[in-house]
TrEMBL record:
Domain of life, source organism: Bacteria
Lineage start: Bacteria, Pseudomonadati, Pseudomonadota, Gammaproteobacteria, Aeromonadales
Protein name, entry field: NGG1p interacting factor NIF3
Source organism (scientific name): Oceanimonas smirnovii
Stored InterPro entries: DUF34/NIF3_sf, N-reg_PII/ATP_PRibTrfase_C
Amino acid sequence: MYKLVFFVPETHADAVKQAVFATGAGKIGDYDQCCFETRGQGQFRPLAGANPFLGTAGELERVDELRIELVCEDSLIQAAVKALRAAHPYEEPAYDVWPLAKL
């Protein structure tokens, strides 16, 4: 089992979540589409050669984003990350994948 965490502008959160959920990620027992969301602000500065969804190369950008956390079965994690990257508006989405211990 893995924990998948990603950061996405609030305006695109539902579309990205649905793409990830469509892979089967976010299932806990008899429940699906399970996740936890935290609001925050992300920042980044696109470098020369970047093609940013928001902002301008060389200028610091701040965006209201959601941190979305969900669990994912081992057999689904690669598909979930692929769906996340395909649905996310950013050229380089920020995400983490952590293996979870079985206790």
